[in-house]
Amino acid sequence: MTAATVKAKLPGVLRAALTLLGLIAAFWLGGAVLGNTEPGHTHSAAAGSAAESQTWTCSMHPQIKLPEPGSCPICGMDLIPLVAKEKLAPNQVTLSDAAKKLASIRTTKAVTGRASSELRLLGKIEYDERRVSHVTSWIAGRINRLSVSAIGTKIRAGQHVASVYSPDVYAAQRDLMAARRQRKALKGALPVARRAAKSTYESAKTRLSLLGFGSKSIAKMSREKKPRRSVGISATQGGTVIEQMVQSGDFVNVGQPLFKVASLKDVWVQLDAYASDLPSIRVGQKVQLSVASLPDQVFEGQVAFIDPVVDRNTRTARVRVEVDNKDKKLRPGLFAEAVLLADSDGPTIGPVMIPKSAPLFTGERAVVFIVLKGKKRPTYEAREVQLGPESGDRYPVLEGLNPGEEVVTYGAFTLDSELQINGGKSMMQHDDDLSRGGSQTYRLSASAKRSAAKLVDAYLELQATLSADEAQDAQKAAIALANAAAVKLTLPQEASEAWKQSTKVMLDGARGVETAEGLATQRKLFIRISSGMMTWLSHFGNPTGEAVHVAFCPMADGNNGAQWLQRADKVENPYFGSKMYRCGDVQAKVGPGEYAIVDKVRGSHAH
Length: 607
Hints:
The protein is of the alpha+beta class. It has twelve helices and 31 strands. Strands 4, 6, 21, 22, 23, 24 and 25 form a seven-stranded antiparallel β-sheet that branches. It has a six-stranded antiparallel barrel with strand order 7-16-19-18-17-20. A four-stranded antiparallel β-sheet has the order 8-15-13-10, with no helix packed on it.
């Protein structure tokens, strides 16, 4: 080989040698790293492998799972690392100790016990008629001034309430004053003159006494320099003014009522009971009462009278309950819900009983969360149960629960929301049983429509606050919705059952929104509220004076789709708010008096 040839090939040989040396060095360094067992050292290749095995998901769409970071293909949000969790069944959910404390989870053991028969009736608070009186004018004349001029004013016995000008009193006092002067002037006259003067004086006094003045008042009036042009009228009984019957300047006769006054120390609650309920009611029976404006208080009374006649139009009889109202909290005109309890004749050991706050309802289905024992972290299981009729503040469980199992009584909505976020079998993802009977319609009376309109208005306010991302305002709207949903109306049996089932869904959801922290949980609860409202609207129609629109978003509820009602004819999405304000479309309009049609296909609502 020539020198020229070697010179030409040298760079290639050098390159090969350098490559070989590089491979050897890399192998040696790798072995050194692998052999290093000192604490705190990590193999870079292992780290790279762990990074490659990391799964990324979307906080809004947990079904998205990708091998590398990026954007969600559905909503465009940044993906987050998926934290590996304990293997759970589709109907199970686990919380950390901190999350459990934050959610204020409360539990109780299911126990056996005897149920009691319970009768719920709706009534209205009224005045105790025995404590109603009138303030009357005991003289005839013209009213110069009213000291009490507002209904609701509290007055006491003997309080001055009006001034009246009476020509009769004016003339009688003037004659009395003249007779007194004449009697004094004739003090030294003949006996005949003195007797005549005394007789005139006594006649003037008698005239004033017949007008209602006492002896002390008459003696005082005889010494006055001028006759009175105004006479005061005082109340004979204290209480609250409930009616004003005259105005200043009116002429009144003797005995004419000026005010109607009632004492509120005791009140009556007039209940409407159907004929089928009357055998369960007796005089002297204890009654528990609650009013929507005082949700945390229970009042007690007893049945004082049962009307022996059933009204031909309403087919109900009046049941009067007397209630001690010394704190003046019960106001006449408010509606009240009465619970009449009577122990049943059943055995001492009965079905499994759970508190009324434990089950979550979706139509006729009921779900409770059970505490699973033997888990490292707090773990709960959603279980469908079959309930019997309400028994006081509890439900009997006919199927699905064993005695001694621990059930969640507070925080069940939070657990269900967490179950849905994790892609589990949430009760919110089941078909709503109420939709199966949505074609049956009922007509409401004028008074019932007013209550129904408040229910719809409260719902629409909640929808507006959620679409505006206002969590605190949503809680306030949820309180109004819960109060409206809690109102019980006197309806025919079938209509009453439809009202009870659909408003129960809304009531439970609204109470969940009221206590939920954050828009995410509130919006998940709103799915059930909207489902109940759609069913309610299919039964009772639109009671408001304006049209409402049915909107649907296919991306809501974990891409299962969810509908809602709103006032606007353009989409205002309550499930995503400002992030996707116009996501979805308006599918139908339900005008005043029209009924919504709920199809079996999710989201296909029309009118």
